[in-house]
Amino acid sequence: MSGPTRLLPLTVALALLAATASSARAQIYSWRDANGNLVLSDKPREGAAVRTFEVPKAESVRATRSVAVDRARSYDDLIVEHAALNNVRPSLVRAVIQVESGFNPRAVSPKGALGLMQLMPATARQFSVENAFEPEENIRAGVKYLRQLLDRYDGNEQLALAAYNAGPGAVDRYGQNVPPYRETRSYVSRISEISAVTTKSGTKIYRIVEIVDGREVVRYTDKKPGS
């Protein structure tokens, strides 16, 4: 998790209270803010009384994981190589990997997605992946699939990311818009934020939204808008 999250429904708090301490994976702290909203965080709040819960691994909870710099950098050559081959921003690929697996090549989701870019078995077969836990194969297929989705949605990164998370069928069912699923919208938002704050040698990257044929298309540039 990255910082506090405010949640109005109490069902989340009740779920945390019901969680057992076996196989605990994280420590969660809770308190009420000045407006009475429930705040959940993986960090305690100084100077305030908080309640704390040990939280086991749960299918219903998904959060952006902190990533050790060395682990992230160990795959950088593969990311840059396949991003260039498929004309995809390397920062976008890094962000997808961070959110999908936290750069863990052995990651397995409750739904059966595998490896760094969390390939579903059908996607792995589509791109001739023999071992989804092998970083080069996983990144090669994951970036190709991301490129396929970008082409399908005319370069619209938000729709491509939504399709990567929920499937193209879900995006198409909602009129080629991001589906109104909480997980999918959070997923798209997190990756967009992570990939947009990429800097190199002090260079700022600007996020621009253009309207093309009545649809929003997101692109990134090092040139300040209006300059």
Topology:
Blueprint: E1 5-7, H1 11-18, E2 24-32, E3 38-41, E4 51-56, H2 69-73, H3 76-86, H4 90-101, H5 121-126, H6 135-152, H7 157-166, H8 168-173, H9 182-196, E5 206-212, E6 215-221
Antiparallel strand pairs: 1-3, 2-3, 2-4, 5-6
Helix pairs in contact: 3-6, 4-9, 6-7, 7-9
The CATH architecture name of the largest domain reads: Orthogonal Bundle
Helix and strand string, N-terminal first? Answer: EHEEEHHHHHHHHEE
Q: How does the overall form come out from the CA principal axes? A: globular
Note the main sheet.
4 strands, antiparallel
User: What structural category do the secondary elements indicate?
Assistant: alpha+beta
Textual characterization of the structure:
The protein is α+β, with helices and mostly antiparallel strands and 227 residues long. It folds into 2 domains: 5-56, no CATH class; 69-201, Lysozyme, CATH 1.10.530. The chain has 9 helices and 6 strands, in the order βαβββααααααααββ. The strands form 2 sheets. It has a 4-stranded antiparallel β-sheet, covered by helices on one side. The chain has a two-stranded antiparallel sheet with strand order 5-6. A hairpin with a 5-residue loop joins strand 2 and strand 3. It is globular. Residues 1-24, 59-66 and 198-203 have low confidence and may be disordered.
